[in-house]
Amino acid sequence: MIIVIGAGPAGLAAAEAASRNGSDVALIDSASRLGGQYWRHRSQVSGYRSNRADLLFAKVRGAASITYISEATVWSIEREGELIRVNYLQGGSESSLTA
Length: 99
Prior knowledge:
Rossmann fold, 3 helices, alpha/beta, single chain
């Protein structure tokens, strides 16, 4: 498993690339929808880049190997031997993932 924190442009690209290469991915973001800065600057993005963003959103949404965890706040990242544990809050509940 690969854990990607942030579903903005870089996080989406990382999650899609990891998924395409056969990894299961957890994509954690504080927002309720994918995109990060894409949404804030959408009107300033050229048609070419806008189309690329839409294609990337579709790939991430359609990838069975990507789990999107929205409206979550990562509060700590810990090393446990060879593994990494990511602790986060979502809807008032504490959860964690290990990769």
